[in-house]
């Protein structure tokens, strides 16, 4: 159900923090922090879909302009047309700055 909000299992945050704080999980903590930094501001299901869609199109289709990026995303399906050119541009800037391209 794509519209269903996500919720955490009781004590999940506490247990996950304990694992990430252990000395064996240093590399995992670094990856977790990198992903958390990448998705900052895009934590909703809408934002995560926008960010991941923009990232996929940038990596796979390699659009040459902002208008080509928007057209590629809007051509994907009707659902993707709800992303405005401004939202796509913001997500593209985040991907470019934080992931590189």
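Sequence proposed for the structure above (101 residues):
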């Amino acid at each position: 159900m794509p519209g269903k909000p996500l919720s955490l299992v009781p004590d999940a945050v506490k247990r996950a923090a304990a694992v990430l704080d252990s000395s064996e999980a240093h590399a995992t903590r670094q990856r977790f922090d990198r992903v958390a930094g990448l998705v900052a501001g895009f934590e909703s299901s809408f934002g995560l879909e926008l960010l991941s869609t923009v990232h996929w199109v940038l990596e796979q289709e390699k659009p040459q302009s902002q208008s080509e990026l928007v057209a590629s995303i809007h051509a994907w399906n009707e659902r993707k047309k709800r992303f405005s050119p401004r939202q796509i541009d913001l997500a593209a800037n985040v991907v470019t700055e934080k992931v590189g391209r």
